Amino acid sequence: MSRNQALRSFSQDLYVSHSQIFKFSTCSLAYKFHYVERREPERISINLPFGKAMHAAQELYYRSLKAGRTKEPLNALVETFDTVLNLELEKHAGIPFVWKKATPDKASALALGRAMLTAFYDSIDLSGYAVVEVELPLSARLYTDDGLPTDFMLVGILDLLLMDENDEAVVVDNKTAAQPIAQQKADEDLQMSAYAYLLASNKYVFPTAPVKCRFDVLRKLKTPKLEHVHTTRTAQNRRRFAKIANAVLANVDSGHFYPQPGWMCSDCAYQEACKAWQSEKIGKYSQKPRTPLYGPLQASGGAFLFRKEPAWSSNVCVPGAAARCHRRNARACLINPSKNPSATRSVPRALTKPWMTFCQSPPKTIIPKNRRKEHYHAPDSNPGKRDQRSPSAIHQPLR
Q1: What are the backbone dihedrals phi and psi of residue 265, each rounded to the nearest 5 degrees, phi first?
Q2: 327/256 Cα distance (integer angstroms)
Q3: Least-confidence region, from 42-51, 322-331, 379-388
Q4: 76 and 62 in contact (C-beta within 8 Å)?
Q5: Contacts from 316-320 at CB under 8 Å and sequence distance 24+?
Q6: What is the pLDDT of residues 175-232, one digit of tens each?
Q7: What is the DSSP string of 300-353?
């Protein structure tokens, strides 16, 4: 079964893949644009068609070994790479491409691909291994912590499945990257945890047995080279992945999507849509705020002082740290923990992210010191009891 056929068969059920989980974890708003709204990308990084062409060439090499034939010659791999890359560039001809330093244009991308395939061809050594499957599509039911089945299937396509001398399965994932993969990153990577979950569910390994994993990384260097990074996934890693997958699905179902700035923003296919979303949100809340500031923070169990009546963050500055910080930085008003850690240390950092779009201008109302006691109380104390602390300590969490 080809990769496209496998994807079509997966689409018949409710499914989730590692790609979706990774996309939501890195930026839930980009997930919404891509998977929920199904928007066309505004631009495409050259890394995507380049990686797809490299996978096609490596697949041809491994399939020849699996069939028991003589390994494909290097020129056949290079021809496959050139063909697939040209097809991908023509397929998305109407969309701008984001070119990289190592691949500033099409000619340099082709040249780099040929050099990387030469390094792969000269370095790959499968002595002691047998090729079991190439581009193996798998699916498995997701279960909750209580062992109850969910409506979703986990799906994935494994680049390569080997069998070592001890008759143990080894799952291999092919990567192209400029930077090396650190051992800690390989040990924590969720993609291998997803593959291990699929292998165990489909009885390629015993339910409690560890799964051997390997990243084959083709480095994009002036002199390309192939690096192997070994890691394992235990039954505990697989349970952790299932818990993360269910948490992601729950958050998707809740409909909470917001931008998460990071290193992937430079290649994001929805930069203009993200800017439009942020402008729309800022405009809406600055005109007429609709959500009380103390609502979600009070639910978190934090020991902050909050206004008994709804206090809107767009026009009321929370006393204490907020009242002091607004002259230095209007965005620091209890919302940004990096600007005022002491003011937010009892509030989970993740809980402040949806509120980053508030407080875009200096607060219009500052509550006088002599009125603070009668307007604020601690959420985890008796609501009817007034705060008796001094105004100078009003911004500190309760002990």
Answers
A1: -65, -30
A2: 32
A3: 322-331
A4: no
A5: 316/363, 316/364, 316/365, 316/367, 317/363, 317/365, 317/366, 317/367, 318/293, 318/395, 319/367, 319/369, 319/372, 319/376, 319/391, 319/394, 319/395, 320/394, 320/395, 320/396
A6: 999 999 999 999 999 999 999 999 999 999 999 999 999 999 999 999 999 999 999 9
A7: TT----EESS---TTTEEPTTHHHHHTTT-GGGTTT-TTT-HHHHTTS-HHHHG
